[in-house]
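Incident log, support desk, overnight shift.

02:14 A customer reports that sequence design results differ from what the structure should imply. Their input is reproduced verbatim below. On-call engineer (initials T.W.) acknowledged and began investigating.
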């Protein structure tokens, strides 16, 4: 071992995790953000649960869907740390693409099933099982 190697023994190279820690400060992941996300997730779960248990309003399914979308946003933001920053642009693009494809598949499946029900048995009254 020469003198040049002895001066860096025990030190991590600049490009590794040793210089900035395993989770790095640039990701914005703090205990505070996890706690905020966790509390929001609990609230966004408890409110629809209470609405269902109390038979609160006629539009409960729509409210549950809105709370579900809000909870997806909370999980993606606070736990997956996907935002509009330049570092996360590809992750956000992939997430949006996946959401569009899932919506197309679900919407198309519902549309196909509705039209199959309407066209397969045209003489049968709808809403009653024979």
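02:41 Re-run completed on a clean worker. Output:
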């Amino acid at each position: 071992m020469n003198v040049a190697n002895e001066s860096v023994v025990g030190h991590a190279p600049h490009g590794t995790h040793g210089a900035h820690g395993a989770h790095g400060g640039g990701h914005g992941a703090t205990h505070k953000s996890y706690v905020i996300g966790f509390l929001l997730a609990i609230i966004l779960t408890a409110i629809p649960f209470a609405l269902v248990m109390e038979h609160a309003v006629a539009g409960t399914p729509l409210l549950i869907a809105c709370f579900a979308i809000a909870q997806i946003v909370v999980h993606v933001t606070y736990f997956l740390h996907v935002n509009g920053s330049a570092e996360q642009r590809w992750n956000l693009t992939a997430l949006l693409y996946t959401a569009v494809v899932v919506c197309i598949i679900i919407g198309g499946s519902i549309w196909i099933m509705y039209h199959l029900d309407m066209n397969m048995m045209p003489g049968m009254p709808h809403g009653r099982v024979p």
